[in-house]
Write a structure and sequence with these properties.
Elements (H helix, E strand, L loop, with lengths): L7 E4 L4 H11 L8 E4 L8 H12 L3 E6 L6 E5 L2
Parallel strand pairs: 1-2
Antiparallel strand pairs: 2-4, 3-4
């Protein structure tokens, strides 16, 4: 992955297995200031479950920045 000042990850994986795979793969590049956008948070057993599991195993903390009214799409910023 090329050097970057800010990493923005657009998660369009939808399913748990693909979401957790991508997050784990990108873990070494995710640092404070990284943004992760999710497009399908309405299915609790998929993207939300993978993101929660990823935060627990990585120890990274994220804060929500914005979401649509349905909370289906949202963007988070890594706090480290």
């Amino acid at each position: 992955m090329p050097e970057h000042n800010v990493l923005v990850i657009n998660m369009d994986a939808d399913l748990y297995s693909s979401t957790i795979y991508v997050l784990r793969y990108l873990r070494k590049w995710i640092r404070k200031g990284t943004f992760i956008y999710f497009d399908n948070l309405s299915r609790p057993d998929h993207e939300p479950k993978a993101f929660d599991e990823f935060m627990k195993e990585s120890g990274l903390k994220f804060r929500p920045l914005c979401a649509d009214r349905s909370l289906n799409t949202a963007i988070f910023e890594c706090e480290g």
